[in-house]
Every structure is written in C-alpha cells, then in structure tokens.
Amino acid sequence: MSGTTQKEVHTIQQPAGGYRSSGIEIVRREDFSDVTYLLELDHPMMARAARPGQFVIVMSHEDGERIPLTIADFDREKGTITLVIQAVGKTTKEMQKDCQAGTRLISVTGPMGEPSHISNAGKVVCVGGGLGVAPVFPQARAFKEAGAYVIGVVGFRDKSLVFWDDKFREVCDEFIICTDDGSAGIKGLVTDGIKMAIEKHPDIQEVVAIGPPVMMRACAETTRPHGIKTMVSLNPVMVDGTGMCGGCRVKLHDGMKFACVDGPDFDGHQVDFEDLINRLHRFSEEEKQAVEKWTESCKARL
User: What Å distances lie between residue 230 and 30, 39, 76, 205, CA to CA?
Assistant: First the structure.
C-alpha cells in the first residue's frame, strides 16, 4: 500500500462444507495500528443484503455488550462483510484481544439503518476522518458505479495510521490524503482537502463526511457558505437499534430523529452537533470504569 507501513494480516481457509458451529466466523483479521483492526466475517446473507451506510449490532460472546458497528465493506461473491474497529472502550478492547481469524462472534444483527441515498450528483466529495475512512469507502464506490466523478478526501494523524489508500484510488477520480504532521499527502485537516476540491471544482454537488462529530461539524461549516449538500453519518449512543429505546435520538433544526431507524445519515447543515457531542460524553465516566475493571481482570488472569 502506497505511503503506509506494513500491516499484519491473518486469514483462514474456509472448509468445503459440512458442520458449521453457531456464531459468525471471522475469516480474516488485519491490524492497521495498535488500536485499529479489521474483521472480515463469513455471512453470505448479510453480504447480499448490505448497502452503503448501513450498520450491524455485534455481540462477541454470550455475556458481551451489544455494540453498533458500521459495515465498512461487503463482498457479495465471497459472501463476506467487513468491519473496521477502533479499540477505545471495554468491548472493543476485549474484541481486539479475542477476535482472531477462525474464532466466532456469537451474534451479528443487521443490516440496520437506512442505506445511504446515492444521488445522481455528477461530482461528489467523499470525506473520511480517522475511523470514518472505512465506512465512507462503500459510498465512494457506489457513487463511482452510479457514474459520478468522485473526489476522495481522507485524514489521519500521521503516515503510520493510513490504510485503504489503494482501495480508494481504485474508485476515486481524485484522491487527497491529509495528515496532521504532513508525513503523508498534504499537511492539514480534511477541511483543507475539501477547500482544495471546491477551489478546483466549483461545480461539486454533494459532500459525504464520516468521522468524529467535531470533524463532521467542521466539514458542514466548510461547505455551508457554498450551499453544497453535505451528508454526515452519526453515531449517538445506541441500545436496541430498532427505535424502541430512544437512546440514539438526534436533534435536528426541524425536529428530533432516531439514528438507528431514520439514519444514520443526516443533512449535516441541520444537525445540532453540540447536543450530539454532549450526549456522546454522557457515559464517559462509566466507560472509563468499565475499561479499568476489564484491564484489572485481565492482569489478574495473567
């Protein structure tokens, strides 16, 4: 991969047939960094049904937490779906340790959420920041397949964290990498990449941005003066994923929506990002305690 460090990949061979134990098998794992890893799952039915922008709810074991994860890629011919995960909380750290090629996830529910609307826009910018790079890829590919001129803009802290640049180059007519330190691509934020694209292409009709809320808000504010439609994918606290609990409600300028059933894609110019960010921080202390408790438990077992 151009401009990246060597990544560690583990795969297993699929059996020709016979008995399949319960759960969803992990057929490949790839580590992009010390905190970011990829799991490719054998799930033909999910691969056939998945659409860009949708997500799944995963349980790694019987006593595990249910967590929503965006589908980063799907291969209908191979019958697999791909998840790219960042180990930031107790469950994702536990999965990083335990989920290897050949192991199984006890439950993968989905695809959930409304698929992204792939418009007939002639020129589109697909923006991904950090972990948002993975889920914006299916959208870039879908826009390309729909005949759009696709400009990819992705952002990382530094060169060592860059991944999937080869995949993006295959589906993008132009591709801009932004790094905080300038070690790969241009030095700057994804908003600098958006500004470059707008300056070169004043006829851009749509921007799709996925990443941390602060990044998506900055992208929306960058495009607002130009009147460019800007869609963002939101990740509020989610419990059941069916609209029953109300935990994933999103405040828009024209009312309230639920990310699990009305989203996760919304008009970035309508989202109340301040409310979203406050809600995401609501359980930060509990999350911190869960990580500390799990870490101590791991040390005790060792």
Answer: 31, 29, 29, 9
pLDDT of res. 295: 78
Q: Answer whether CATH 2.40.30.10 is correct for domain 8-12+24-112.
A: yes
Q: Per this entry, what is the length of the chain?
A: 302
Q: pTM of the predicted model, to two decimals?
A: 0.87
pLDDT along the chain (302 residues), means of 10: 45 40 89 95 97 94 91 96 93 95 95 93 95 94 97 96 95 97 96 98 97 96 98 83 79 90 94 89 73 74 66
The predicted pLDDT at position 6 comes to: 42
- Report phi then psi at 209, rounded to 5: -130, 130
Pairing between β-strand 123-129 and β-strand 206-210 as defined by DSSP bridges: parallel
Assign domain 123-280 one CATH number from 3.30.1280.10, 3.30.200.20, 3.40.50.80, 3.40.50.920.
Answer: 3.40.50.80
The reported pLDDT for the residue numbered 284 is 72
User: 264 preceded by cis ω (within 30°)?
Assistant: yes
Nearest Cα neighbor of 43 from 53, 30, 28 is: 28
151 neighbors 177 (Cβ within 8 angstroms): no
Burial class (CB in 10 A: 0-12, 13-18, 19+), 278: exposed
Distances (CA, A) of 106 to 15, 60, 95, 128, 215: 19, 5, 12, 30, 33
Q: Where are the domains of the chain?
A: 8-12+24-112, 123-280
C-alpha dihedral sign at 223, 229, 69, 7? negative
